[in-house]
Inverse folding.
């Protein structure tokens, strides 16, 4: 339980001349729920996207499960990984997006089946059976044949979680999973995430749901302007923030 | 219609009967009457003019299934299909080249599209047709060598002229389709570990099709009509055969009208096909698929039957 699933050492990221991440150092332990909070534009989503190499980092080192993200080190030289190698590593990292990004031309169950069939080469019948189980787990067994446009936002997000779980990842990334939802639909999605946390999944959650962070989170990091301002146990940071910037942020959102 | 609205009503008013419907005298649109009369008069005048003309109407049904006409129809359809095939394949390749990060391929694609869209297709056909004046033979080294006139048949002239021109248009249609798919789709697919190729084939292209199919259908219909231009480069298709029959039988206008009828029949059939194709690719993008004409007719029949029962 003490091995680091994600380790970040001085990670920098710039978009053009704008520096979004200014040296991020943190460690996510295996099996923990790691919450990232902070004002918008603080770089938390960008950091999350660096973890599965949707964004390339400019400096520093980022490790997932002990292996460098996006590069291979030989001696003191770094070699960029081929697209196929990057894809291979992404199999083990599930990602859930703020805007769901379900495939609109596929039904709910086809969305969940797509990657196991196309990437892992599972047979359709095996994938369909497991997809059915996953949809049941997120409480949507009866919506299997519906297209995303026929589902509510909360239902779509739960299908998206099932889709990510279908690849049996060892790490799940959540990028503000409830920010695009109507308030009354947030609860269903958080319930599914809570279940997942209890099953021992390593989760990194960018969120504005302080209740969820306090209740389910094992660690919490407050980021602002591309740096980690404060970190610790969620209950501690949320009730007794030490840093002034954390205090002013929390006073606005709580 | 006996819903219990009084139970949850904000005030305890007794359930009233329906409010009285408004009966007002509608505005009279006199302009519309005038326009309708004028349009009918113009139409009548045209019909009258044609009835006075010296037209042998019987020549149309007499020649409608003439062997040469049927052969022309077949040639037109083959030429349309093959030119569109070249157009679509070329268009996909050009659009991928155009969107690639390689500046050389993207500039070449840009130049191709600029050239072939910017010059009239008839001019392009004449250029292909007359290349024999500048080339004596085709020499592809050890692979192929032949006299130019044997190589560049009227069929190949027509096919290259139409197909390569079409590729430029299809390239822009395909590019618009690929750009229309949200970037989040690619990201989600990559995040699941799918390769670039699989992402393109399984996720992006099927969604791009919804944007690509309607204009492509229009292109097919346009192509069917544009094939008539190749009559100018000695290729025998519907128009050319019709003209031949016209000059030999003296019924010039009649056979041209006959050809027009055939074009109308073919474009009408294609439009129906296009409708069903669009409907297929709309699945998932709208909550309910639009009804097919048959379903509409069926629904109308049913509601007609019910209407008498309701009142």
């Amino acid at each position: 339980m003490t091995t680091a699933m994600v380790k970040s050492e001085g990670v920098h990221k710039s978009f053009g001349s704008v520096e979004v991440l200014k040296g991020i150092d943190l460690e996510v332990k295996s099996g923990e729920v790691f919450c990232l909070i902070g004002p918008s534009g603080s770089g938390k989503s960008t950091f999350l996207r660096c973890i599965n190499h949707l964004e390339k980092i400019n400096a520093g080192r980022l490790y997932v499960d002990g292996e460098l993200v996006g590069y291979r080190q030989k001696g003191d030289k770094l070699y960029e990984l081929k697209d196929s190698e990057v894809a291979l590593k992404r199999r083990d990292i599930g990602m859930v997006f703020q805007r769901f990004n379900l495939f609109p031309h596929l039904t709910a169950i086809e969305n969940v089946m797509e990657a196991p069939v196309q990437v892992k080469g599972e047979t359709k019948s095996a994938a369909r059976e497991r997809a059915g189980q996953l949809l049941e787990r997120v409480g949507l067994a009866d919506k299997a044949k519906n297209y995303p446009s026929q589902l509510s936002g909360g239902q779509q997000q739960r299908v998206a979680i099932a889709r990510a779980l279908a690849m049996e990842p060892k790490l799940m990334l959540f990028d503000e999973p409830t920010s695009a939802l109507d308030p009354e639909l947030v609860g269903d999605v958080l319930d599914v995430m809570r279940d997942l946390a209890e099953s021992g999944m390593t989760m990194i959650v960018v969120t504005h749901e302080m209740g969820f962070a306090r209740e389910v989170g094992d660690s919490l990091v407050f980021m602002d302007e591309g740096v980690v301002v404060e970190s610790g146990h969620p209950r501690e940071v949320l009730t007794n923030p030490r840093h002034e910037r954390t205090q002013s942020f929390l006073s606005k959102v709580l | 219609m006996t819903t219990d609205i009084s139970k949850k009503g904000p005030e305890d008013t007794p359930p009233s009967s329906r409010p009285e419907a408004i009966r007002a005298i509608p505005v009279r649109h006199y302009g519309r009457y005038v326009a309708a009369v004028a349009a009918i008069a113009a139409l009548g005048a045209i019909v009258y003019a044609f009835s006075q003309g010296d037209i042998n109407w019987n020549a149309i049904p007499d020649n409608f299934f003439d062997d040469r006409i049927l052969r022309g129809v077949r040639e037109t359809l083959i030429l349309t299909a093959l030119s569109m095939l070249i157009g679509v394949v070329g268009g996909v390749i050009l659009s991928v080249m155009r969107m690639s990060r390689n500046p050389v391929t993207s500039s070449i694609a840009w130049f191709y599209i600029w050239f072939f869209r910017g010059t009239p297709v008839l001019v392009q056909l004449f250029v292909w047709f007359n290349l024999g004046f500048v080339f004596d033979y085709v020499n592809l080294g050890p692979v192929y060598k032949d006299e130019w006139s044997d190589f560049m048949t009227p069929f190949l002239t027509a096919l290259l002229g139409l197909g390569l021109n079409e590729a430029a248009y299809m390239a822009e249609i395909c590019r618009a389709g690929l750009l229309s798919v949200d970037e989040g789709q690619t990201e989600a697919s990559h995040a699941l570990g799918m390769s670039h190729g699989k992402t393109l084939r399984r996720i992006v292209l099927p969604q791009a099709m919804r944007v690509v199919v309607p204009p492509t259908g229009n292109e097919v219909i346009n192509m069917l009509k544009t094939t008539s231009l190749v009559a100018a480069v000695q290729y025998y298709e519907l128009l050319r055969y019709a003209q031949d029959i016209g000059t030999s039988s003296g019924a010039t206008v009649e056979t041209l009208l006959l050809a027009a009828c055939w074009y109308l029949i073919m474009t009408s059939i294609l439009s129906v096909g296009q409708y069903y194709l669009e409907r297929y690719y709309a699945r998932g993008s709208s909550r309910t698929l639009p009804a097919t004409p048959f379903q509409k007719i069926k629904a109308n029949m049913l509601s007609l039957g019910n209407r008498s029962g309701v009142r």
